[in-house]
Specification:
This protein is of the alpha/beta class. It is built from six helices and seven strands; from the N terminus they run H-E-E-H-E-H-E-H-E-H-E-E-H. Helix 1 crosses helix 2. The longest helix is centred in the C-terminal third of the chain and has 22 residues.
Length: 207
C-alpha cells in the first residue's frame, strides 16, 4: 500500500487551493454542525459522490477541527493523482487481502490525537440521489479494531442549485456514538442523519 505523507509545501497548498476552488465554484458554502473539543483523534465517515469530496473534508477540518488530514483512496486513483500522496492520502485495494493492511494503517493513524482520518464507507463514487446509501464491511472492521478512544463524526456533503447557475454546497456534521453498533446499524444511522441533513438544506439556503 501507499502511505500518506505531508509535504511541507504541497500539503498546505492543497488545503488552500481546495478552499479557493470551492469558493469560486459554489454559490454559497454552508457548514452546519457543532462538535465538542475532546482532544481525541477524529474519524470522519462521509458520503462519496464527487471528485470534490476530499477537498470538502480538508476544508471542514481547516475551519473546525484543526487536525492533520488523512484520507483513504483507491490505489489506482492515488497512483494516477500522485499529488495526493503528499497531502495525507493513503491507498486501499478493494477485493484483496491488502484492505486489512490499509484499515490497520488507518487504525494506527487514529492513535495520534493530532490526526483526522477520512473514510468513505460506500467504497466507490455513487450518485448523490441514492435513495439509501449502502456501506461496505470495512467501516465495521475499523471501528471494532480501534486501539484507543476516537471521536467519530458523520459528514453529509450535499449540493442544490435553486436559482443559481452555480450550486450551493451544504456540509453537515455531527458526532456519532458508534460503540456496540454493527454494520447495519451504522448504515441505518448514517442514512437517518443524511435524510435529516437534506431537509435542513431548505432552511439553510437563505441564511
Amino acid at each position: 500500500m501507499i502511505k500518506g505523507r505531508h509535504h511541507w509545501f504541497l500539503y498546505p497548498f492543497f488545503v488552500w487551493y481546495g478552499w479557493m476552488r470551492m469558493k469560486r465554484h459554489f454559490k454559497k458554502i454552508h457548514l452546519s454542525g457543532t462538535v465538542s473539543e475532546t482532544g481525541l483523534p477524529i474519524l470522519v465517515i462521509s458520503n462519496h459522490f464527487s471528485w470534490w469530496d476530499g477537498f470538502f473534508i480538508a476544508s471542514l477540518n481547516r475551519k473546525n477541527f484543526h487536525k492533520k488530514f488523512h484520507v483513504m483512496m483507491l490505489e489506482d486513483q492515488l497512483k494516477k493523482n500522485w499529488f495526493f500522496q503528499h497531502t495525507g492520502a493513503f491507498s486501499v485495494r478493494k477485493n484483496s487481502k491488502g484492505i486489512i493492511q490499509s484499515l490497520t494503517y488507518a487504525s494506527e493513524l487514529l492513535q495520534n490525537p493530532d490526526n483526522l482520518v477520512t473514510y468513505f464507507p460506500q467504497g466507490q463514487f455513487e450518485s448523490i440521489n441514492q435513495e439509501k446509501l449502502q456501506f461496505e464491511k470495512g467501516v465495521e472492521w475499523l471501528l471494532k479494531n480501534l486501539k484507543n478512544e476516537v471521536e467519530v463524526i458523520f459528514v453529509a456533503n450535499q449540493v442544490d442549485y435553486f436559482e443559481s447557475a452555480n450550486p450551493y454546497l451544504f456540509i453537515h456534521f455531527e458526532t456519532y456514538d458508534f460503540k456496540g453498533k454493527n454494520l447495519q446499524e451504522i448504515e441505518d444511522d448514517f442514512n437517518s442523519f443524511y435524510r435529516t441533513s437534506s431537509l435542513k438544506n431548505i432552511n439553510l439556503k437563505n441564511t
